[in-house]
Design a protein that fits this description.
With 305 residues, this protein is of the alpha+beta class. The chain has 2 domains: 124 residues, D-amino Acid Aminotransferase, Chain A, domain 1 (2-Layer Sandwich), CATH 3.30.470; 152 residues, D-amino Acid Aminotransferase, Chain A, domain 2 (Alpha-Beta Barrel). Helix content is 26%, strand content 26%. It has 7 helices and 16 strands.
């Protein structure tokens, strides 16, 4: 599944440290830490009718990741929200937008790994694109990757960093196999997540997902668990084996980029008869109800157009 170019994004304005640049000329220094070593953190946000869903939890995760990486300076939430609003207003965006928020350690005065070479403060990038949920709602196909998710005693995956080579290698395998994405296991052989999303299965009416020992604490994942608790849906966080997934009644992925997306095939095996299950549909509808009524107002949707 390759995303097609959206012509509405042809003349995007990108926000870099408060300055707006056309997408064709926007850029950061080759001395920036994001370029030097992937030394940056990021969040994906989605805009619904002028509101960003779960904005504060996303910004909290951005701050927590930057703190874990010992950034000397982290912009305030108010500053980041102001820059997001400015970027959306400049691009006349109010709905159906995905925002990639990146915070790097900033520019070094000479090339190198040493963080003491950073003396100019962080680099904040706000990239907003016209982008609906990217996954096919009729169902996606996965393979199990041979690339394992990194354990926390190597690199804690709850640090939401821009060093994504682990995921990229798994995605390359999925592409080569003609699948949409790759399911990744931890070093014990249990399900972690896909290369881009968290994973849920449904068995006998119980919604189950893996713990976050080898994957980030997803915002959409947490929302689905909240919905289950609020709606009286039985749910469980546990180690999931591949055998459990293969025989599941239903399977779906969660993430800001694609919301909830059913999985109908894994490693050539049909999941749930190869169709979207009733629980997946119910949770997707309950999630959409939340996005229609919740969120942090960042632009005026009522006056759009």
């Amino acid at each position: 599944m390759k995303q097609a170019f959206n012509p509405k994004n042809k003349d995007l304005l990108i926000n870099i440290n408060g300055e707006l640049y056309h997408r064709d000329v926007a850029g950061i220094s080759p001395f920036d830490s994001a370029v030097q070593g992937g030394d940056a953190v990021w969040e994906g946000l989605r805009l619904y009718e002028g509101r960003i869903f779960k904005l504060i939890p996303h910004l909290n995760r951005l701050r927590d990741s930057a703190m874990a990486m010992a950034f000397a300076e982290i912009p305030s939430q108010d500053l980041i929200i102001d820059e997001i609003s400015k970027t959306l207003a400049a691009n006349r965006m109010t709905d159906g937008v995905h925002i990639r928020l990146t915070l790097s350690r900033g520019v070094k005065y000479t090339s190198g790994m040493d963080t003491r070479l950073n003396t100019q403060g962080p680099t904040l990038i706000v990239l907003a694109e016209h982008k609906p949920p990217v996954y096919d709602k009729s169902g996606i196909r996965l393979i199990t990757s041979g690339i394992r998710r990194i354990p926390p005693d190597c690199v804690d995956q709850n640090i939401h960093s821009c060093n994504l080579i682990n995921s990229i290698l798994a995605k390359i395998q999925a592409n080569a196999a003609g699948a949409d994405d790759a399911l990744m296991l931890d070093y014990q052989g249990y399900v972690a997540e896909t290369n881009a999303t968290h994973v849920f299965i449904v068995q006998d009416g119980v919604v189950m997902t893996s713990d976050t020992g080898s994957c980030p604490e997803g915002i959409t994942r947490a929302t689905v668990l909240e919905i289950c608790a609020d709606s009286g849906i039985r749910h469980e966080v546990k180690n999931l084996s591949l055998a459990e997934v293969y025989r599941a009644d239903e399977m779906f992925c969660t993430g800001t980029m694609g919301e909830l997306a059913p999985v109908i095939e894994l490693d050539g095996r049909q999941i749930g008869g190869g169709a979207t299950g009733s629980m997946s549909l119910r949770l997707s509808e309950l999630f959409q109800e939340r996005t229609r009524r919740e969120g942090y107002q960042v632009v005026d949707f009522a006056s759009a157009g």
